[in-house]
Amino acid sequence: MAETIKKRSAAVAPRGINHLVLNVRDMEESHHFWADLLGFKQVGKLKPREDGIPSMNMQFYSGLDQDDDVNHHDLALVQRDGLQEPPDEWSMFAGTSAVNHIAITYPDRESWLEQVQYLKERGVKMNLRVDHGMTHSVYINDPNGYGVEVLYELPNEVWEHDIDGALNYAKVLPDEELLTDTTEYETKFS
Ligand SMILES: [Fe+2]
């Protein structure tokens, strides 16, 4: 017997985005970026199928270790032909990629600073360093031209009273302040 499902007059609010699947030009190149540079762990690879569903070169990735509070996969990569060439210079404001940027949360301020330093030491181009009202962020880009925001979350009490204000707050820091991070967080946004 079919179970009784409550009838809703409005859509159910989702808990959030579960995972993101990106088309990439070269699996090896993108694996290096997302695993070796950003720290995602590969947790799976699509196997050939015999049920008629087309096979793809597809790999799956997750953030924190399996023992922590972790999603089965946060990200998957699919190798595809015919993708547009990435631009020479990534731009949040003038790019033509369908994906503007993907934001990756690091566990806390200390690990974020270590991660930004790790990326800098490996010659990753830092496009933009911004203190937002709800995150402190560095913008880089993947080999396909997708923007990637490397961030840590500020405490809820900094932004939860005015999310729109926090979203509209942006202080761009110069390159030499890439690793200079204040904990005197702005709480008045207008
Ligand atoms: Fe963002």
Secondary structure layout:
Layout: E1 20-24, H1 27-37, E2 41-45, E3 58-62, E4 75-79, E5 101-105, H2 109-121, E6 128-132, E7 135-141, E8 147-153, H3 156-159, H4 163-168, E9 170-173
Parallel strand pairs: 1-4, 5-8
Antiparallel strand pairs: 2-3, 3-4, 6-7, 6-9, 7-8
Fe (ii) ion binds near residues 101, 103 and 149.
CATH architecture of the largest domain: 2-Layer Sandwich
How helical, in percent, are the residues? Answer: 10-25%
Radius of gyration: 19 Å
Ligands and ions found: fe (ii) ion
User: In sequence order, what are the helices and strands, one letter per element?
Assistant: EHEEEEHEEEHHE
Major beta-sheet overview: 5 strands, mixed
Sequence of strands across the biggest β-sheet: 5-8-7-6-9
The overall pLDDT, averaged over residues, is: 94
Number of helices: 4
Label the overall shape.
globular
CATH level-3 fold name of the largest domain: Signal recognition particle alu RNA binding heterodimer, srp9/1
SSE-based structural type: alpha+beta
Number of strands: 9
Strand percentage lies at 25-35%
Distance between the termini: 56 Å
Description:
Helix content is 18%, strand content 25%. By secondary structure, it is of the alpha+beta class. The protein has two domains: 17-81, 2,3-Dihydroxybiphenyl 1,2-Dioxygenase, domain 1 (Roll), CATH 3.10.180; 100-190, Signal recognition particle alu RNA binding heterodimer, srp9/1 (2-Layer Sandwich). The strands form two sheets. It has a five-stranded mixed β-sheet. Strands 1-4-3-2 form a four-stranded mixed β-sheet, with helices on one face. The longest helix has 13 residues, at 109-121. The structure holds fe (ii) ion (FE2). The site of fe (ii) ion has 3 residues, from strand 5.
